[in-house]
What does this fold into?
Amino acid sequence: MKERWLAFRDAFREKTGWKILDAYILRKFLGGLVYAIALLMTIVVVFDVSENIQRFMDKNIPVPEIITGYYLNFIPYFINLFIPLFTFITVIWITSKLSSHNEIISILGNGVSFKRFLVPYLVGSIIIVILSLIMANFIVPHTNERLNEFKYTNFGRNSVQSSYLHIKNSDNSYVFVERWDRNEESGFFFTYEEFNNQKVTYKIAAQKIKYNDEKAVWELQNYSCRKITDDDEIITTGERMDTVFNLLPRNLDQDAFISETMTFKELRQFIKEEKKRGSSLVQSFQIEQHKRVANPIGIIIMTFLGLSVSSRKSARGVGVHLFIGMGLAFTFIFFQQISTVFSVSGNLPPVLGTWIPNIIFLAITIWMLRFAQK
It folds into this structure.
C-alpha cells in the first residue's frame, strides 16, 4: 500500500510540476481549516452541553450513550454546515499572513506566475469539496437519522404528528389520513379510494392503520371495504386486515426535514415518488437535493474569493482582510437564503434558486482576481 502511494505521489509531482512551495501552502491551508473547525466544534459542543446537561441528567442517560448517540451524530452536521464559511476564513487568514510577511511578493518575484500560485489553493479546495460531497450525501444523512432517534427516545419527542394528509397514491387512487404519527408509523381515520371515470369504484376506511416493517404490509384496524359496480355494491367489515398500498411511511411524513435523513440516491428516488403523488413539498426536497452539490462546489468559489481579498498586502494588517471577507461571506449567505425563499414559494425553479448565489459570486470572484496582486 505504501509503495502504491509513493508511486502515485511521484507521478502526480511529475505531471503537475508539484513543488515544495505547493506542499507548504497546501499544508497551511488544510491545517488551518482543521484547526478552525476543531475550535468551532469545541465551542459549539461546550454551549450545547451547558444547554442540555439538565435534560441528560433528568433522563439518566449514560455518558457513553450521550457521546456515541448524540455528539458523534451532532458534530458531522455542523462541520458540513460551516465548512464553506470556514474554508473562506482560513484562506483569508493564511493568505493575509503570507502577504504580511512579504512571502507572496517573494514568490511572484522569483518567477512564479500568479496562475501557478493558485494551484495549491485549487488542489486544497478540490480535496475539501470531495470530503464535503461525501459528508453531505452519505455520512450526514445517517448521522441525522441516528440523532433524531436519540432525541425521540430520550427526550420524549414521540408526539410528532401530521394532520389531514391528502396524497395521490396512483393515477386513479388517493389516500387520506386525518392524523399521522411519524414515530409510531401509524395513522388514524384512514381512507383509500379508487376512481374510474370520476366515480368511486373501491373504498377502504379504517380507524387505524399501521405499517409492519417485518412483513412490509399495512395493518388496518376496524375497517370497512366498499366495492362499487354499475349494478351492485359490496360492503365488508372486520377488525383487522393486512394489505399493501403503493405507499410507504416516509410518503406520509409531510415534513421537509425528512430529506435530511436520506442519502443522495434515496432522495432522488423519493422526489420521483412524491412528484407522482403531487406532494406540496417537492420544491423543498429538490432544493435540498441541489444544495448537496451546490454548497460543496461553492467551496472552490469561496476559496478563490478569499484569496482575491487577502493576497494584496495591507498596512492595516489581517484585520481589514477579515472584515472585508466576513462582509462578502454574509452577503453570500444572504443571497442563498433569499434565493431559497423564492424557490420554495415557486417563483424560481429549485435548480436556479440553489445555483444563482454561486453564479453571482463566481462572477465577482473572477472580477476580483483580475485586480489581485500579481
Summary: The first strand starts at residue 161 and ends at 170.
